[in-house]
Fold these 2 entries.
Entry 1:
Amino acid sequence: MGFFTKDLKTMDDLLLHGLQDIYYSEQQIIKALPKMIEKATNRDLVAGLKNHLEETNKQIERLEKAFEKLGKGPSGTQCPAIDGLIKEANETAGEIEDKTVLDAAIVANAQAVEHYEICRYGTLIAWAEELGHDDIVRFLTTNLNEEKAANTKLNTVALRKGVNKKASTAA
């Protein structure tokens, strides 16, 4: 069920579908992060990805609480957007031999995922606020803040911790 389907008739339907979308997305990220961690060589990047893997598990727990508040069981709906971002990340990683360039690509791919999540959580917060689901807003806001922090950490790794600099000098 996509966002432009006849099954979505109300804001409540939109909110539930959006929660299912991000729930599925977070579960796919849980599967993808260990592969990124395994391929990364920069220790700051590895540490950041490991930390975000732990955060993502907690984000899934918060999403499950949001479903519970709505009286629904947690469930996901396939998200072509996250599937595409992860597929692109895997394809890119498979094409790069130089480890320093690979680290830069991992940062970029991880940031693409973070930006998607930031967008999705922001929308869900707005919808939940409009519908008066303050308890759900708190869960989603915590997740959003973690996604923003993860993106900032990735920026730091790329720019201040030298990942981009090292990649730019690769032969």
Entry 2:
Amino acid sequence: MFERFTKHARAVVTGAVEHAERLDAGSVGEEHMLLALLDREGSRASFALASLGVTGRRESVERSLAEARRRGGLSQADTDALAGLGIDVTEIVSRVEEVHGVGALDDDTSRRGRGRRTVRRPFGPEAKSTLEKSLRIALGRGDRSIGDEHILLALTARPGIAAEVLAEHGVTYGAVERVLGGGGEAKAG
């Protein structure tokens, strides 16, 4: 599948691995792909993100992703569903952090202190699913190769932390489609 990726899409995948390594994550997740997309310049996805005003709010995106990691990877939708059952995730996180320290529910904190890995991080199930979805989106649009815009569209189309954070910042599948389909100027990269 990677032979179908454009140079921009390959850069996103490579960047996601680098973000996972920098954050000492056990695997590459969709949040790392989102961070790598925010790093890009001169591509269709970077054009879409800039047009939707996200590139200037990177810190806000990073805070939202960190908060989701702090909740053990639960999305706000998951947190709301649990609240409907009478389970206060914020209270649980607070109690766990009182005993075990801040960030104790972060999926990746259990790996810290074990030394740096020298091997590449594997792609987690949600990241693999995002890449597969990007292929389906590209094929559905009649595109011969997978660009970083397809990865962005896949992140917005799948339920999860990345889609939720993007939606909080005004980036939805429909909004990205409108920006990318908006004319010749959207064909950057």
